[in-house]
Specification:
five-stranded mixed β-sheet, alpha+beta, single chain, four-stranded antiparallel β-sheet, signal
């Protein structure tokens, strides 16, 4: 009988294992290992001071009006950014695992009144305000 042949048994086991594993490639987002953080400079057009950002241990950089910055964050690992728009400044959780885990992209819009958060690029919510001395 063909079912008793070792090669045929191996082939059936291999094929079953292969299809089980390939069907899990399209995993739910909650199993993602990375999330993209998207920060956009939406400060007023008449802004004279540049927006300066520094995230985690990366050096500070300028983000011009209308431009955006993307970074990839490992899920389960919180990430902070510091922003300066003189004389204002703040440090905020750009990625907070308890809040953002399971989302493919976390969007931030930097505006006059603070930092607006969204998971879909719409329905913005103010989560952090600017501070000054």
């Amino acid at each position: 009988m063909a079912f008793h042949h070792p090669f045929f048994t191996f082939f059936l086991l291999f094929q079953s294992f292969y299809f089980l594993n390939t069907s899990t490639l399209a995993r739910p987002q909650s199993h993602r290992t990375n999330t993209v953080v998207y920060i956009r400079n939406d400060l007023p057009n008449n802004t004279k001071e540049q927006l300066e950002l520094g995230c985690d241990k990366s050096p500070f950089f300028y983000l011009k009006l209308g431009q955006h910055h993307n970074s990839t964050i490992t899920v389960d690992q919180d990430s902070k950014c510091t922003a300066e728009w003189l004389p204002w400044f703040t440090t905020w959780d750009v990625y907070h695992a308890k809040r953002d885990k399971g989302y493919q992209t976390v969007y931030w819009s930097v505006r006059k009144h603070g930092f607006y958060h969204s998971w879909g690029g719409s329905n913005w919510k103010l989560l952090e305000k600017w501070y000054t001395e």
